[in-house]
Design brief:
By secondary structure, the protein is of the alpha+beta class. The protein is built from seven helices and twelve strands. Bound molecules: heme C and copper (II) ion.
Length: about 325
């Protein structure tokens, strides 16, 4: 991990423009601070108690023109800097069409990444250098914020919205990824790494990743190992709903609500089964909180998703 020194590496093509604005602001503000502090010091000495300096009032025209000039010059200066920074923001919001789209799901307290080919990562994002990348981000629960300081990019991820963030990583390396919006108990641990690789390395990395199919296969094994199959399949003694065809379908709950069986629903069913009880069933499913890891939930979810079409259900 590149440890930030005094100045972070400029690891994306957006970074330099942001830094230029920051430096300009620093220089202009410092110059004004120095000027004001200098004048205060000079006047404090010149007009100290008992000094012989003249206290005659200045000609009024001088006082007025200098006052106006100084006020409007600084105002103009800072409006110009604002316009400059705003135009940079607008450019960031309307870049050319991205070449690579990556889906990112934020939830307490992890970043779940899915590449176009189905390759998944958790708390890690691999991207190729020199390619315009677009993240399509959603939150499953509360507001999170995707922040990579070395790229100078940050985007809030608001539940119910699809947020887009585009950047072009430039320097191969490993960079910090933070959640920059307080999102609950483990917010401080909602951190990860962004790995920028050369396009060749990235292509090789992609092919080494297990695909959705493999994830579903390992999910099938977990489904048996954790005893889910014992209740949800075959001649179980417990009456539990069949899961084929479940994913993406509406579910009628005991309290009268109807919800859609998506990632969040499956996750909640596993971790907090007492929360949403399926209509017509007893709340006998035990909670697997602390038993299955986030990675294993991803596997189980992939398996349940693969059972989507009842026709080819149970191919694994
Ligand atoms: C002791 C039996 C039992 C075990 C073990 C069990 N479940 Fe369940 N499960 C149930 C019952 C009963 C329901 C329906 C009542 C409810 O919603 O809690 C249910 C509901 C669900 C639902 C919602 C289904 C729907 O139709 O909306 C999912 C998803 C689910 N379980 C997945 C799992 C997974 C994954 C495992 C293993 C990690 C598992 N279950 C283990 C009994 C069980
Ligand atoms: Cu967060």
């Amino acid at each position: 991990m590149n440890e930030p020194g005094i100045w972070l590496p400029q690891a994306s093509s957006e970074a330099a423009a942001t830094d230029t604005i920051l430096i300009a602001l620093l220089v202009v503000s410092s110059a004004i601070v120095l000027l004001v502090a200098g004048l205060i010091t000079v006047f404090a000495i010149r007009y100290r108690k008992g000094s012989p300096a003249s206290r005659e009032p200045l000609p009024s025209i001088f006082a007025r023109d200098v006052e106006f000039g100084w006020t409007f010059a600084t105002l103009g200066l800072f409006i110009a800097i604002f316009a400059w920074a705003a135009s940079q923001n607008i450019t960031l919001a309307h870049p050319p069409a991205a070449r690579m789209e990556i889906h990112v799901l934020a939830k307490r307290w992890m970043w779940k990444v899915e590449h176009a080919g189905g390759q998944g990562e958790i708390d890690e994002l691999h991207v190729p250098a020199g390619e315009l990348v677009e993240l399509i981000m959603q939150s499953e629960d509360v507001i999170h914020s995707f922040y990579v300081p070395a790229f100078r990019v940050k985007q809030d991820v608001v539940p119910g919205h699809t947020e887009r963030l585009r950047f072009t990583p430039e320097k191969p390396g490993t960079y910090h990824l933070f959640c920059a919006e307080y999102c609950g108990t483990d917010h401080s641990r909602m951190i990860g790494r962004v790995v920028v690789q050369s396009p060749e390395e990235f292509a090789a990395w992609l092919t080494r990743q297990p695909q959705e199919d493999d994830l579903a296969k390992s999910g099938r094994q977990l489904f048996v190992r954790f005893g889910c199959a014992g209740c949800h399949e075959g001649q179980a003694s417990v009456r539990a709903p069949r899961l084929s065809g479940l994913f993406g379908a509406p579910v009628q709950l005991a309290d009268g609500r109807t919800v859609t069986a998506d990632d969040a629903y499956v996750r909640d069913s596993i971790l907090q089964p007492k929360r949403d009880i399926v209509a017509g069933y007893d709340p006998v499913m035990p909670s697997f909180a602390g038993v299955v890891s986030d990675g294993e939930i991803a596997g189980l979810t992939a398996y349940i998703r693969a059972l989507r079409a009842p026709a080819d259900g149970g191919v694994y």
